[in-house]
């Protein structure tokens, strides 16, 4: 047996000082000096059934795995994929051509398992014409060929070698593609981080078909690997003569064909586009293993029917995992010298500049869609979208509407800038001012802009959502309400009514056109900022809200996609012990699936015009959503949808039969007296009926939370309340929620256990048998019986989102996390979120950043909780425990979050294994005492316990000032650089005005022609270093 080893290597400039070469140990295995565990090997064993052997072919024929019609001109193509399955599962390959099912999985090629050493290899073959080409993917299926799991990422390409002869055998060696494998192909990396790589020139690999025809005993091996982080040709101009340093990727091994472990004599791979490098080599027949690192192997058997071609797809180049850092700030919180009372899209350019100087590769925003539903400050809530497509006029820079603004308008803008330059955002005044000024500019330039080619192009690409949006805004203002059920004949949307509303002949057409005009300029300004970020190597990360407002364009146009008699929220968790009620209608997923989630796909396509990454708000909602009745105001009495309820029969078998007792409010006279004291008789007479001695029920006109609130408001207006309205409402709500089971409003024979049912007096008054049964069923409902259902639901919905754009997707997976969530996110390549104060491990009070998994974003806080400073200062006991258990000090912690504490916490996070460390700007400002004079509580963005919270936080320092604060920038940059995270390059001007480029990229220089290259903390000797990376 001939044994040979191989490894992939690349030639790069690095600033790490590590020289990476391949050597062999005493066993002949490849050893790599990078410190990376990258070797992969498999020894040939005589007992194995090897692909291509006589025994293998006989087994394939016996199992009927050769499909297609075999003719003298056909080529036999066999598939080979290692994959461990459970009982009853199989692998299947399906593709674009009829022989592979034409993407109908039921008609795909079922593979058969073959044990090879410790691996389970799935194999199968087809016969195709020599000119065959197509796409294919692998699927995990059950006995009925129902899909249990599918590959993520791009479809695989099958193209036979040019000039291949009929009767030849081609073997495809593939590895299962997970969602993580697709991450380098997301726009965040492809178009931003690794944009130099994707700009490489495509090369042609020299053909060796003629040589194969002459060497009867040879096998053509096609090597292919994905290397996304390989830079384009670089140059060093610090030498007397500029030196071009091209980028190479090689395969080296122990055979002469692979250079006998010498890089300069190895097999050079050629760039084929899409970060793929490939090349062909002729290898002699015989039993041998090619070693490329841990568990990577290639075995070719010298049988009567060996393959003449092997296509070896070895997945990703395994370098040290890429890690980056970013800053998070709501758009409305940005403050600049040019803004008008609120952050504006064009301010993002300055924020990007600051991010680059600070070493950040990412800027994260909250949702930026129009939320103008109520016409008041309630609309500051960025997650309650009026339209999921329209941008918010709040972020418009009115000065940029025209290059020819009259002096009167310029003066008006300057006066408004001074008036609105407050500590916090004045939402109503700012929006009204901007729209007023914009209308004046519109009157002057409407025909010029709306007849321009750029607007016509924009309109044609966006009219499907733009026309309904403009019509909705007109009707909202005309009827003075966004509640479209109050719009008379316009309550029900039709295309015919829409066209009449937006007709050029209508008297209100200029109002319609004004909304077109505003959206066009918002699009232009955000596009300008987004393109600027891409060119600077900074990812712009958006936010995808879980819901839409009940009175929105989307519920008006697509009412069938929403369950309008329900409301969305979250069960009790870290954010709110009473649960949350967001007020959004839940989704009708069954209806959405009929057109393959077209509404979602259009929504993501629109986002991708501006963002290269996005956060999926409350990703748990794609597994199951906390659904509340529309009449609820709080978030406790809900149920998960979808979920498997408790049936009447199931409960009766357990001895539970008094369903009214368990599902109606359990109100005893002593409860009422205890809660309301002397005014208990007033409460009874106005809200309750006495239906048996000492027992009460709610009157029909106040048997829901909304009815109670409405009646209380009426009584308060008549000055009839003896206590505060808020206290009485809370106490009445408590009585209403004193139940054990929730009866399904659509099926009276189904029940759901009330969350935290053991806390209710209704439960406490039950007999022991009933208590034990209900406790057991409660834990089964919430923690066991739903897992498979929720997993299947997520695998239906989430791939539709991921496939509709090439943005990098991150999921906000905080709260009550089902066991199925993290495995599904890992499978789909979704990046999770880790907040130290909200550990996912139930036995921990504080998360341990050093133990976070790679596929996560880590952060010390987020917009839905207090800032790092406020968190540190609000609870003395917790502060002491953190200081002792995390900081490791037995001393007394400082009562204030001093810069040293902030530095410690931030360093923990940048040094974490997480792919991303993203910090709210408020937490970064805590590094400098100068910025901590503002009370920490004023820096909180949202209070989840308050459904009517005013989202108005503004940074108390301008971006221009932050750009000039070299001390803060140095502190932040030091943290990021010291952690080994990647950084964008920074262009700075020194005091003499000389331009220099400071390159801060981990592992590789990012050198640009005509610019000096300086490695932070290291000196170049004037001689370029040649480094070898080994895969």
Characterise this structure.
InterPro entries: Carb-bd-like_fold, CBM20, CBM20_DPE2_1, GH, Glyco_hydro_77, Ig-like_fold. Keywords: Carbohydrate metabolism, Cytoplasm, Glycosyltransferase, Transferase. It catalyses: Transfers a segment of a (1->4)-alpha-D-glucan to a new position in an acceptor, which may be glucose or a (1->4)-alpha-D-glucan. GO terms for molecular function: 4-alpha-glucanotransferase activity; starch binding. The chain is globular, with a radius of gyration of 32 Å. It is 29% helix and 20% strand. The two termini are 25 Å apart. Strands 1, 4, 5, 8, 9, 13, 14, 17, 18, 19, 22 and 46 form a twelve-stranded mixed sheet that branches. It has 1031 residues and is an alpha/beta fold. Among the domains are: 71-234 and 241-316, Immunoglobulins (Immunoglobulin-like), CATH 2.60.40.10; 325-564, TIM Barrel; 665-738. A hairpin with a 6-residue loop joins β37 (741-743) and β38 (750-753).
What's the arrangement of secondary structure elements?
Blueprint lengths: L5 E7 L9 E3 L5 E3 L21 H10 L2 E2 L6 E9 L7 E6 L13 E2 L1 E5 L2 E11 L3 E9 L5 E4 L5 E4 L9 E5 L13 H7 L15 H6 L3 E9 L7 E3 L6 E3 L2 E6 L13 E7 L2 E9 L3 E2 L9 E2 L8 E8 L7 E5 L19 H10 L4 E3 L42 H13 L7 H24 L2 H27 L15 H7 L7 H27 L3 E6 L8 H5 L4 E2 L2 E5 L9 E2 L4 E2 L1 H5 L4 H10 L5 E4 L8 E5 L9 E3 L4 E2 H6 L5 H5 L3 E2 H8 L3 H8 E5 L2 E4 L6 H13 L7 H12 L4 E3 L6 E4 L7 H4 L3 H16 L3 H17 L4 E4 L9 H8 L3 E4 L20 E4 L8 H7 L1 H12 L11 H12 L5 E5 H5 L33 H6 L1 H13 L7 E4 L5 E5 L13 E3 L11 E4 L1
Parallel strand pairs: 4-9, 5-13, 13-22, 14-22, 23-24, 23-42, 24-25, 25-30, 30-39, 40-41, 41-42, 44-45
Antiparallel strand pairs: 1-17, 1-46, 2-3, 5-9, 6-7, 6-10, 8-9, 10-11, 10-12, 14-19, 15-16, 17-18, 18-19, 20-21, 26-29, 27-28, 27-31, 31-32, 33-38, 34-36, 35-36, 37-38, 43-44
InterPro entries: Carb-bd-like_fold, CBM20, CBM20_DPE2_1, GH, Glyco_hydro_77, Ig-like_fold
Pfam family, one: Glyco_hydro_77
Organism: Salix dunnii
